[in-house]
Amino acid sequence: MSKESVKKLKARLSKTIFGVSTPAGKAFDITLIILIILSILMVILESVPRYHKNYGDYFSVIEWIITIFFTIEYILRIWIVERPSRYIFSFYGIIDFLSILPSFLGLFIRGTQGLAVIRGVRLLRIFRILKLNRYTSAGTFLIRALKASTSKISVFLFAVIMAVIIIGTLMYLIEGPESGFTDIPTGIYWAVVTLTTVGYGDISPLTPIGQFLASVVMILGYGIIAVPTGIVTSEITMKKLNPSEGDIDSSEFEGRECPECGTVGHRKSAAYCYNCGGHLQDHLLD
Amino acid sequence: MSKESVKKLKARLSKTIFGVSTPAGKAFDITLIILIILSILMVILESVPRYHKNYGDYFSVIEWIITIFFTIEYILRIWIVERPSRYIFSFYGIIDFLSILPSFLGLFIRGTQGLAVIRGVRLLRIFRILKLNRYTSAGTFLIRALKASTSKISVFLFAVIMAVIIIGTLMYLIEGPESGFTDIPTGIYWAVVTLTTVGYGDISPLTPIGQFLASVVMILGYGIIAVPTGIVTSEITMKKLNPSEGDIDSSEFEGRECPECGTVGHRKSAAYCYNCGGHLQDHLLD
Amino acid sequence: MSKESVKKLKARLSKTIFGVSTPAGKAFDITLIILIILSILMVILESVPRYHKNYGDYFSVIEWIITIFFTIEYILRIWIVERPSRYIFSFYGIIDFLSILPSFLGLFIRGTQGLAVIRGVRLLRIFRILKLNRYTSAGTFLIRALKASTSKISVFLFAVIMAVIIIGTLMYLIEGPESGFTDIPTGIYWAVVTLTTVGYGDISPLTPIGQFLASVVMILGYGIIAVPTGIVTSEITMKKLNPSEGDIDSSEFEGRECPECGTVGHRKSAAYCYNCGGHLQDHLLD
Amino acid sequence: MSKESVKKLKARLSKTIFGVSTPAGKAFDITLIILIILSILMVILESVPRYHKNYGDYFSVIEWIITIFFTIEYILRIWIVERPSRYIFSFYGIIDFLSILPSFLGLFIRGTQGLAVIRGVRLLRIFRILKLNRYTSAGTFLIRALKASTSKISVFLFAVIMAVIIIGTLMYLIEGPESGFTDIPTGIYWAVVTLTTVGYGDISPLTPIGQFLASVVMILGYGIIAVPTGIVTSEITMKKLNPSEGDIDSSEFEGRECPECGTVGHRKSAAYCYNCGGHLQDHLLD
User: Fold this and answer.
1) Would you state the pLDDT for residue B99?
2) Is A197 on the interface with C (CB under 8 A)?
3) What are the two backbone dihedrals, phi and then psi, of residue A257, each rounded to the nearest 5 degrees?
């Protein structure tokens, strides 16, 4: 194969793997998403003893098909990018490696079924594929609103933790081990379960004074839930009324992914990754 | 009966069945609503063994009265509309058919009591009767606000599903089958029960580290609930501050129903259904 | 006693019982509130077998003191007002009567302890005493905001009821009696318990498909809670941004109570009750 | 030691203990926070029988190190301030004393392990150290928004308490002792558990009518939660739209603490405590 044809092949593969604008790129992305979801579903189902016993063999076959596909993809990525080492040690590079590792380890070492759970990191790969679109723009909006209220939410969380420690200790002193409040950590656990209105009922106060305190805590928790909601809501409303100048207009962005470090969110006109300086493929090849 | 008198009869029936502006039309609608609620109540009560045993006969009689009424209505609807096939295969046409089917099937086939539940589709008929009024206008407002925040809510749901899968898997690994976390699906089920603050208590962590993780999840869930609330609230507030131009002024609409496809929400001045082109009766007959 | 002195006495009593601006009126109101709370507390405590056995006699004595006080107050009210019949058959007149009735019935008839609970209506008397002040003005604001969103909340409630019926029926079909879903009403009860995130855990799904549906319901309920919050919040925010012209400026009102029908919220300058036309005492006697 | 050098030493210690702007002051604050958290953690862990048995000795040693550090700090504070009596009887002075008392009492008296919990007051010391910064400014904002809605929240709480009393009494009458509703306080406890959507499940209705009422209560509670959220959210949003003139610009404040009464939040330019008139150290020593 001539050097020229290799370069052309690389360019074509690049467009498929890193781009989203070509039909091939889209098909590749959708295949990946389906395989990831399938593979996550299998990790989940394999943990059920009954399914593992009856369908274990089918699971193995599908798992190997997925692993081989991911392995080929991993090798191609290394081959294509200009600086492979940068990709290999990037965040997504490590995830790509971890998502194929357990299957191969299982070949050589026995009793690595526990490692199967590591395959769960494949879930993270989904974020790379869900590049910049309507949804990530909405996601960005939400994260931005949450970030703007970080300090308020921290104060709130601090107050909740203090309250939970004080209430848990009080209930431990009032109820004691007979009611299931065997120690202060258990009391704090109960306080969290109650204040957040989860209410398992595995531990619940039995003495009248304990039930009274519990009632106060519940009504408190009822009111307290208003605080984070209020913070987030007002932040979102404000963001809508006065979109700050720095806000990204997501329509300007194309869903391209840097082949070297996996960063997404590059401007349409960008030719180089703003994170690592690698060549952005779609632009390069026009 | 002359052709003329048949046409007049059809017109009169049309006004009663499809219109809401005449006293007969209103009475017809109210009768229908009462019969539907009665029939739903009976499906519910019949499932209670005690009631089924004691009042089963009364239920049968009432059920047949309702079925006969609905059957007559169904036949009349077919007879009146210009293109019966279009009505029969429309959404509401199928619902009308399904709501009378189980009773007749019960005549010919034994052991079709399970089919009785199909009668529950009658619940859907209520939506046709609750045509455009103060309530559906409020409903439209709410649906509009929810739709405007679809992409944000999707992102939120996606994040919740991811979180639930990760938390469920972690708890399965930490707690194991002795605490009731028999497999990952059960762990995910527990995570949903906890994150949404439902907290049945059928499965709850027993190890200290599991209880600690559970506490973190609960406080997380407490904060997370703020996000959809914030999204919906700000959307409603914005909609109120700046009602968009495209918003329908509901007062302009009359609660007419297309006799052929069952669509509602036609403009006062409309003579033909905007959905299927069928004649709108009230207008036609003025 | 001369007619004149009787009239003067009536006027003085009027000021005490119906007014709030004099020290005597305030003292009277505070005494009443304390007695009502005491009497409610006693109804609550008497239901505890242990307290009833040990302190039953003390409770009786206190109960009779309160009853006698309320009886004197009731007789005075009848004596003072111009048209006693109007007071007697007014809302608060009936409550005043019901709150002393059980004690006297207990004298003549045996086994009327169940009636003691009727004394609970005394709780309602508290509303009359909490006349127009900072708190009722805040209460008015809240009620107004809730009323403005009645139609939206009705639609929401209707949707919730429909959802609960459908989900309850589905779970009854899926889980069946072995899991505790003995009939459709139980299924609906479970659906309410789950959708509102209460989650007792007395009934919970056991089959995988039931647990999956339950998870969907919970996440749904999680999102649904955003809707009423959004409605109320935006209504309160709008009310604050644009206080409508018709809104009462509560500072203009004095906490006077109509002696005949018990209505409160009269304008400072009012001499007659806007509800029944009775003389408002404070004004009359200046 | 000459009087002059004593004064200089006092001044230096003052800067370290009461100031935050010097490196020594910052290091002192961070050391204190770590010791407080460590000491709280130990109170919590000591309550677990297993840890107490295995690591009890280590806990004792750490506890004494912390106690000695706090004792030295306490003595220094008394020595440094101009009017020791004012510091000793101030809020933080008493807390400082209580946080070292239990360890010393344990030396002389046996069986004072119960007192160990008093060491929990050390948690309160953390508030003094978390002087005015980004977080307390956010905290101030939240407290301000909550205060502005006090009257509305009080009305809401009053309504919730009334509802809970009425519902609890009704359920006691409907369900009776067989379902666990042994008395009205238990009924009220159940009503709180249900209305706040906690739902332990330790008590739950068994009769159909009880389950129906419970369902109504739950849906009610579902709607009621919207009210405090609405109040707080709209208050926060309003505060953001129109920051009132009286609001403190927190950037103007320095995190200085009055050495005599422990008050924080003094203006940058302040030389005397606005609370007790004591000299503020940092300023004094420039």
Assistant:
1) 84
2) yes
3) -120, 135
Cβ contact, residue pair A236, B238, below 8 Å:
no
**For residue B280, what is the DSSP state?**
P
Report the distance separating Cα D107 and Cα A212, nearest Å: 36
Q: Which two tokens stand for residue D180?
A: 């666990």
**Quick check: C161 contacting B, CB < 8 Å?**
no
Cβ contacts of D218 on chain C, cutoff 8 Å: 192-193, 196, 198
| Global pTM value | 0.80
Domain C3-136 has CATH 1.20.120.350: yes
Q: CA dist D223 to B129, C226, D220, Å?
A: 27, 10, 5
Q: How far apart are alpha carbons D157 and D162 in whole angstroms?
A: 9
The stretch A116-133 carries a mean pLDDT of: 69
- ipTM confidence score: 0.78
Q: Are B58 and C202 spatial neighbours (Cβ–Cβ below 8 Å)?
A: no
- Min Cα separation A136/chain D (Å): 26
CB distance B229 to D229 below 8 Å = yes
Q: Does the distance separating the beta carbons of D120 and A166 come in below 8 Å? A: yes
Q: Which residues of chain C neighbour A198 with C-beta distances below 8 Å?
A: 199
Structural domain boundaries of chain C? 3-136, 148-252
The C-alpha of D237 sits at a distance from chain B's nearest C-alpha, in angstroms, of 10
Out of A43, A142, A199, closest to residue B156 by CB: A142
**Comparing C-alpha atoms, which of B93, B60, B56 is closest to residue B74?**
B93
Instruction: Tell whether D167 lies on the interface with C, counting CB pairs under 8 A.
Output: no
Q: Do B185 and A142 touch (CB under 8 A)?
A: no
Other Cβ atoms closer than 10 A to A268: 11
Asked if C185 and D211 come within 8 Å (Cβ–Cβ), the reply is yes
CA C236 from centre of chain: 22
pLDDT number for residue C187: 92
Q: Which of A159, A172, A215 sits opposite D192 (nearest CB)?
A: A215
| Distance (Å) of CA A273 to CA A134, A248, A262, A266, A279 | 22, 17, 9, 7, 6
B180 close to C (CB below 8 A):
no
Q: For A157-185, how does the pLDDT look when each residue is reduced to its tens digit (9 = 90+)?
A: 888 888 898 899 889 888 888 888 988 89
For residue B193, the model assigns a pLDDT of 92
Neighbours of chain C (3+ CB pairs under 8 A): A, B, D
The pLDDT, as a whole number, for residue D280 is 66
Chains that touch D (3 or more CB pairs under 8 A): A, B, C
Name the region of C265 (left: φ>0; alpha: ψ -120 to 50; beta: rest). left
In chain B, residues with a C-beta closer than 8 Å to the C-beta of D233 are 233
What CATH number has the domain spanning C148-252?
Answer: 1.10.287.70
Considering only CB atoms, A199 lies closest to which of C199, C229, C233, namely: C199
Closest CA to D172 of B6, C47, B201, C43: C47
**What is the distance between the alpha carbons of residues A115 and A136, in angstroms, rounded to a whole number?**
31
CA C138/CA D155 separation, integer angstroms = 7
> Which 3 state secondary structure label does DSSP give B215?
helix
- Whether residue B43 contacts residue B117, with contact meaning beta carbons closer than 8 Å, is answered with yes
What's the pLDDT tens digit per position in C188-229? 999 999 998 888 888 889 888 999 999 999 988 877 778 888
* Cα gap A227→A224, rounded to integer Å: 6
